[in-house]
Design a protein that fits this description.
Helices cover about 25% and strands about 40% of the residues. The chain is of the alpha+beta class. Strands 1, 2, 4, 7, 10 and 11 form a 6-stranded mixed β-sheet that branches. Strands 3, 5, 6, 8, 9 and 12 form a 6-stranded mixed β-sheet that branches.
Length: about 170
């Protein structure tokens, strides 16, 4: 049987974050996930075909640059035409840079079902999304760069703008 099942995901978000870290991230607008911290991705399957999908198993894995893999399986309920099903893939970032997301859907008989993007192009052996993670060194470098930029603005006000205002008055 041929099904037309679309897969989509939202932007990865933090799943475990301390209050202090959350405040710092809001001030400096750093939205990257740090290595070792948790993330979550909401994955949605939608039946866009004419046939009812009788359910099965969705297997999702994240493969990192250091070849470490996180893996989860989810039971998928029966999906009528234009019906959606959402799962929450939640793991920890294992390495810096990209973690590629792959998915495989099998029906209740164990037969693989091809997943499609929103343009009905099949994902065959391709990732459908990614998670970006940074290490602590890169995070601290960004903080230092932002503090240095703020310091330069303060110095410019003190050494350039105020003397010009005094000279003009």
């Amino acid at each position: 049987m041929t099904y037309l099942i679309q897969i989509s995901h939202d932007k990865p978000a933090f799943s475990d974050e301390k209050r202090r870290t959350r405040i710092i991230r809001r001030i400096f607008r750093i939205n990257d996930i740090q290595v070792g911290s948790g993330y979550k991705v909401s994955i949605t399957l939608k039946n866009t075909g004419n046939q009812t999908f009788n359910g099965g198993t969705l297997s999702v894995r994240a493969q990192w640059a250091n070849n470490q893999i996180t893996f989860s399986s989810y039971p998928v309920k029966s999906l009528a035409t234009n019906e959606s099903f959402t799962v929450l893939f939640q793991h920890g970032a294992l390495d810096k840079y990209f973690g590629l997301l792959f998915a495989e859907l099998k029906d209740n008989n164990g037969v693989a079902v091809t997943l499609y993007n929103e343009n009905n192009v099949p994902y065959i052996g391709q990732c459908f999304g990614s998670v970006w993670a940074i290490d602590e060194e890169e995070l601290l470098s960004r903080y230092a760069l932002m503090i240095a930029a703020i310091s330069l603005v303060v110095l410019m006000i003190k050494d350039v703008i105020i003397p010009i205002i005094i000279w003009l008055s």
